[in-house]
Amino acid sequence: MTPEATAPLLLVEDDALLASTLYDALSLAGYRVDALEDGDAAFTRLATPDHGHALVLLDLNLPGRGGLEILDAMRRHDRDTPVLILTARGAIEDRVKGLDLGADDYLAKPFALDELEARVRALLRRRQHDDGTQLHVGALHFDTLTQRFTLDDVTLELPPREQRLLAYLMRHAGEPVEKAHLLEHVFAEETLGDNAIEVYIHRLRRRLADSSLTLRTVRGLGYLLESDA
Q1: Domains and CATH numbers, the chain
Q2: 42 and 11 in contact (C-beta within 8 Å)?
């Protein structure tokens, strides 16, 4: 498969061994990759609107300026370039802050290279089809500014938790999302169990019934939102 990026990816990671491994894996996958290991250098590169990168892989714990400060500065002028944050497993507070500041997704270390490449592909595909404020999956549309869902041109009224869950699944349409991933990304600040996720998934399935959308369970992988249209 030809990579979706035409501009180079930017890898910001200070662990030399990990950075080398990621650089080699992404290069072998066909991407052009620029690499930085210092937070100050990354801040300077990304603080300008013409940084020229298709996607940023950003470690949070960097020498010099930290990843969250870099992300905050970048999002002041660039809200479109996808950012995938790389963070230590268990650092939930940093992950939540990163997502709140505008990161598109995260990976907790250690992670499989196949998963990294899948996330990169998904984020680049999403960038091609979204204008930054509109999400589309078949006949389902979501305006991120008004927080309004429409299905077959009819407004879809959802409670807040279902709104957040469906919006996240739309951002990851076409790829399975694990239940644990939903708990960490969508409901990180709430105490919810696995059963609660299943209840919300069931409710969303009922709301999407009789449409071209399906929300199915992929055994061992998670929940998959896709359109038959």
Answers
A1: 9-129 (3.40.50.2300), 134-227 (1.10.10.10)
A2: no
